[in-house]
Amino acid sequence: MAAHPLERRWIVISVLLVTAMGGLIVATASLHGLHPPSNVETIDSTRLHLTPEFAEDHLGVERAKDGTVVVRLVMARYMVHPQEITLPADTPIVLRVASADVLHGLHVPGTNIGTQVVPGYVAEVRTTIRFDSAAKIGTPNADGSVTLPLFCNEYCGLGHQSMWGRVRVTRP
To answer: Beta-strand (E) ranges in 16-161?
Structure first.
């Protein structure tokens, strides 16, 4: 059965459009350093505060022996612990986040930090924050640093609007 030339033309156009959109998605993800989560690590959300890593006195920012900055956060209705963290720009950062109760979303505008935090799993994001990008979005501070909002972008209940925190980005 022969296809009409007009039908063939529209088939070619639609295939080219789908190919172009797929290429744009791959190019954008590559240019912005986006990648799907690859770490699958389980944790008991009901005993989160009893674990060595996510106990309250171990949350926050620490520098590893190799120079990487490791951040540990816990998201729970309706708060982020700790509520403010300070991160150096142009330094490798590993964010490790766990949920104590329901599905949450972690997002920091001006960076490529964005992930879902699923109860029972540790969400891990590896990134490097560029100061210039953060400065475009954030609020400048007197000491030359920039403050960015950190918030939950996944509806988690009636107090969802109260789930926020701050990320202070310092110059390298």
So the answer is: 60-63, 69-76, 79-81, 84-88, 92-99, 104-108, 113-117, 122-128, 139-140, 146-152
Task: Tell me the pTM.
Answer: 0.77
Query: What's the CA gap between 20 and 32, in Å, rounded?
Result: 18
pLDDT at 38: 63
Contacts of 52 (CB under 8 A, 6+ apart): 58
Q: What are the tens digits of pLDDT across the range 68-80?
A: 999 999 999 889 9
User: CA-CA distance, 22 to 138, in Å (whole number)?
Assistant: 31
Beta-bridged to residue 71, according to DSSP, are: 61, 95
Contacts of 22-29 spanning 24+ positions with Cβ under 8 A: none
Q: pLDDT tens digits, residue range 37-71?
A: 666 788 998 898 899 999 998 999 999 999 899 99
Q: Which helix or strand (DSSP H or E) is residue 167 part of?
A: strand 164-170
Give me the residue label for tokens 């949450």. Answer: 104
* Structural contact between residues 167 and 150, judged by C-beta atoms closer than 8 angstroms: yes
DSSP state, 67? Answer: S
- pLDDT tens-digit profile of 99-119? 999 999 999 998 989 999 999
**Residues found in the chain:** 172
